[in-house]
Design a protein that fits this description.
The protein is an alpha/beta fold. Helix content is 38%, strand content 12%. It contains 18 helices and ten strands. Helix 10 crosses helix 11, helix 10 packs parallel to helix 16 and helix 12 packs across helix 14. The N terminus is likely disordered.
Length: 548
């Protein structure tokens, strides 16, 4: 089946796990399944920059003031979003903005950023621009806007030019490149060894291979893709587009970018909504553990919904707990008995199977994502056909039907390694994380060993950042609306509580439900609250909880 909607990045990254990480913040409850692949990588369009960093130009402007005063030459958008290649792009305008690679050296190398604009319906009374970022990190903000027309339609589009952009290093902007398509296929389609020592050795070697490839092809760009640079880019784009303050909707990892912007430019914060929050002060290993626990809870809720409400269409049986365990046992069994997928060279193995399951867990009860997962599991478990889950895995990994990969997975690692130090955990920290995962996420971690948690995610990465987790206050900003979902698997609800409590001026809105983030979830209470704040500045009441 095909589920059309807005993509918002990823959670589990195979590459991240190879680098010693586990889960990373990702997309929301709507999306596309059907093998359509990921964001359009370095593909050419009227909104695109160059497809790599080895030959970044220089000398576009001689000062920061020159960058600020540039004009965007808007034109037709000619490259369809990967998840909806039939999308009508006639309403959108695409263009580029040039930013300095290093803001302390504006006469040095330049980076070209791709933008899309859906002009406000009521131009005479528009409030300005509404910048958006869908998260990942690594998801295309251009694709996001082009695929989310129905979500922005109404009061938001009436009052704002809706702006999407691909951050530096990603998508149609000057992008990070690392491994070729065939090498990425091998990376994603080879199950890790069952033996813990062999698994650790392979992870170490694979992480070095990836890091060396990224350094060789994109080394000049890697130190400059962190969220502090993206925040500076957003403030430059704000000035170029003529907005006095930045009005912004950030989802998932886009909340971290928004938080950093508020920290760097508090006086320039306008109406800012951060939905599906990343906690900037979280310990990274603990955050990864809580994310896996969240996905296991969603797995059990999906299994319970499947056997209770869709018994005749569900390949699972028994109690919700037993059904979830049955699902996990089947997917784990694909390591020894992979399923045909329609492509003789790409059977559905354990790694791809779990990836195809995880992407479905972004949804909520009644969502198209859960429908996809029921149908994909039925094909696999009843008919021995792995094609549907493979399509979901490909969409998650950013692989298109021709076998080409987007920049998402490479960008995800590069941004995370630029944003946070990942020190080697102590033996006690490893044991604590191991115990938490075996008790709270045992289905997802049936073969886990403590050694799997001992290697920090960015140990072999060529650029080692000095950025550390910390509380962000953004003293002096306008009120920031933070939204958390009670059973969000990718960004647990406590993240939103912590983020809102850390800000000097914030309001927390709670969406009661499952699935990642409120935007696009169908929760009308949350949608109305976002709209009211972004359009009129009206905040929801203190303690507001949106149940529908």
């Amino acid at each position: 089946m095909k589920v059309i909607g807005a993509r918002r990045g990823r959670t589990i990254s195979v590459v991240a796990m190879l680098l010693g990480g586990t889960l990373v913040a990702g997309c929301t409850s709507t999306g596309s399944v059907g093998g359509s692949g990921g964001s359009s990588g370095g593909s050419s369009s009227s909104s695109g920059g160059s497809s790599g960093s080895g030959s970044l130009p220089s000398g576009k402007f001689t000062s920061l003031q020159g960058f600020d005063s540039q004009q965007v030459s808007w034109g037709a958008c000619t490259s369809e979003p990967a998840d909806d290649p039939s999308a009508d792009l006639s309403a959108f305008q695409c263009g580029t903005v040039v930013v300095p690679l290093d803001y302390t050296a504006p006469t040095g190398k330049d980076v070209t950023l791709a933008l899309v604009k859906w002009p406000a319906a009521d131009q005479a009374n528009k409030l300005g621009s509404l910048f958006t970022n869908p998260g990942g990190p690594g998801a295309s903000g251009v694709d996001f806007v082009e695929e989310s027309k129905s979500e922005f339609d109404g009061a938001l589009h009436a009052h704002y030019d809706i702006i999407g952009f691909d951050p530096r290093g990603l998508g149609r902007s000057d992008a990070i490149t690392c491994l070729d398509d065939k090498t990425q296929d091998k990376l994603y389609e080879q199950d890790p060894p069952k033996d813990a020592a062999a698994r650790a050795a392979k992870a170490e070697q694979d992480s070095k291979t990836l890091a060396a490839a990224c350094e060789k092809k994109s080394g000049a760009l890697l130190p400059y893709v962190g969220s502090k640079y993206v925040a500076q880019d957003m403030d430059l784009m704000r000035q170029v587009l003529g907005d006095k303050k930045l009005n912004y909707l950030g989802i998932s990892y886009g909340t971290y970018i928004g938080s950093v912007y508020a920290e760097e430019f508090p006086a320039n914060v306008g109406h800012m909504v951060l939905d599906g929050a990343v906690d900037p002060n979280a310990d990274q290993l603990e955050a990864d553990v809580q994310q896996q626990v969240g996905f296991e809870k969603s797995l059990e809720k999906f299994a319970g919904d499947c056997v209770t409400n869709y018994a005749s269409q569900c390949p699972l049986s028994g109690s919700p707990t037993a059904a979830a365990q049955q699902l996990g046992h089947f997917i784990d069994g694909l390591q020894d008995h992979p399923l045909p997928s329609g492509d003789p060279n790409r059977p559905l193995d354990q790694t791809l199977g779990w990836t195809g399951v995880i992407i479905g867990l972004y949804g909520d009860v009644g969502s198209d994502w859960w429908k996809y997962l029921r149908e994909g599991l039925t094909k696999a478990m009843k008919n021995g056909d792995g094609s549907e889950l493979l399509a979901g895995a490909d969409q998650y990994n950013g692989r298109d039907p021709e076998g080409h990969y987007s920049t998402e997975q490479n960008g995800l690692i590069a941004v995370r390694c630029a944003d946070f130090t990942t020190p080697t955990p102590s033996a006690s920290e490893v044991q604590t994380a191991y115990s938490q995962l075996k008790s709270g996420a045992s289905i997802l971690n049936s073969n886990l060993a403590p050694a799997d948690l001992a290697q920090p995610m960015c140990a072999n990465w060529p650029f080692q950042t000095q950025e550390k987790p910390h509380q962000i206050k953004a003293q002096g900003s306008d009120t920031i609306l933070v939204i958390g979902t009670t059973d969000d698997p990718a960004t647990p609800y406590q993240n939103a509580v912590n983020l809102a409590n850390g800000f000097a001026n914030a309001r927390l809105l709670t969406r009661v439900g499952t699935g990642h983030a409120a935007f696009g979830s169908g929760n009308q209470c949350a949608a109305s609250a976002m709209e009211a704040y972004l359009v009129s500045g009206t905040l929801p009441p203190q303690g507001e909880r949106c149940t529908a």
